[in-house]
Amino acid sequence: MHVDIGAALASAADPGVERATLDDLDERVAAAHERIEQGRNKGEFGYASLNLPEATDAETIHDAVAPVADAESVITVGIGGSALGAKTITEALAEDPGSHVVLDNVDPEHVRRTLDGLSLADTAINVVSRSGTTAETLANFLVVREAYEDRGVDWTERIVVTTGESGPLRALADQHDLPTLPVPEGVPGRFSALSAVGLVPPAILGIDIEGLLAGGQQAADDLAPSLYDSPAYAYGAMAYALEEAGATVNAVMPYAERLESFGEWFAQLWAESLGKDGRGQTPARALGATDQHSQLQLYRAGHRDKVVTFVRPRERADVSIPDPDHEDLSYLAGTDLGGLIDAEYEATVASLPAADQPALEVEIDRLDAESVGELLYAMEAACVLVGELADVETFTQPAVEWGKNATRALIRGEATDETAVIDERERLRIGETESL
Ligand SMILES: O=P(O)(O)OC[C@H]1O[C@H](O)[C@H](O)[C@@H](O)[C@@H]1O
């Protein structure tokens, strides 16, 4: 992975990072790296995530999915960290990205249409929940199960469950004697892409999961006590310094359709890990070149509160543009779509510092298993580094738990502190409407 920080230095943009700031920051990066290494060595909660490339046993995953390896497609039932890693990986690497369907919402119309559109006899079910209690996941699992039964397909023969050692999902799996894989110890969901949590659908679809782990290991080996020697830390340190300088929004803009979900995965990683104590960059999502024609206006000329993170593979598929046979289009002659999207990338990256706005560049060699594994791992390490520099609790998400508890209490009809807040809000809302 290659990171270019030139367009985010103070000499190029405002907000930007002074070279001297970066040199000072480098000493803090060294201290943070030491803390991270200590956490990894002791397998401490959260830090253990960065050991996954060596801790994950690909063979165990292959064995667990063997009974469903003939499936043509996979339906994942999970949410957040229990869905986005697998979604990102299969979107980037599956021959047919449509072969992995993710049910990570409980929109009834969507769930019904998704199930109606699948040949369930040829579809494996991948149910994932670290806690085994998440309402959306458990509800969708029950709906999926019933759909299989209604169509006369034995769901117990088509399923793999990944969950913790206890909880309702574990109990259901034991009750039906389902093949199960454990969630890794000490690893929050959003950091678990390179474990069974993210690797079951790729394994079923024949994606090179060993390559993904090898790429992750490469990124782990590239961590070093200086941001100048470590692309992951260079990215993290710059993101931190830019936030300090006022770039409170981080818009991630991959120039590859197959990396669109990477933006979604990154958004959870950044938001849940770093959105604490009144700080944390707000992740925004864009796709190049498409969003040049919708969001770029704001990125260049809007508030000076953003950094755009550009992401692209250096190699692209070869699709030539046919002879335009029209003078006005002659500039396209002899080019290909890869050349065009790369020209758009170069032009757009340059357009930001030209408007005094910062940009960071992240490039991977190509869209293969090694490079995708490397990218995911490096962004996780960058996130952990930012958490150290900002001194926040990177590996918890207490503000999300509030909503989860409130939902459960509302559905059960229980009166709790959370539902009291909801009742109060409802009362105020009604009062406001009546006074209009
Ligand atoms: O894996 P689960 O326990 O079902 O949790 C799924 C998701 O639930 C919550 O929203 C958490 O904030 C996420 O971090 C987590 O990934």
Automatic annotation (TrEMBL):
HAMAP family reported for this sequence: G6P_isomerase
Alphabetically ordered keywords of this record: Cytoplasm, Gluconeogenesis, Glycolysis, Isomerase
Function as written in the Swiss-Prot or TrEMBL entry: Catalyzes the reversible isomerization of glucose-6-phosphate to fructose-6-phosphate.
Source species: Haloarcula quadrata
Enzyme nomenclature, EC number: 5.3.1.9
SUPFAM superfamilies on file: SIS domain (SSF53697)
Name this protein carries in UniProt: Probable glucose-6-phosphate isomerase
Superkingdom as given in the UniProt entry: Archaea
Cellular component GO terms held in the UniProt record: cytosol
Entry annotated with the keyword ATP-binding: no
Catalytic activity line of the entry: alpha-D-glucose 6-phosphate = beta-D-fructose 6-phosphate
Subcellular location: Cytoplasm
Family: Belongs to the GPI family.
One of the GO biological process terms: glucose 6-phosphate metabolic process
Catalytic residues identified in the record: 272, 293, 404
Top EC class, one word: isomerase
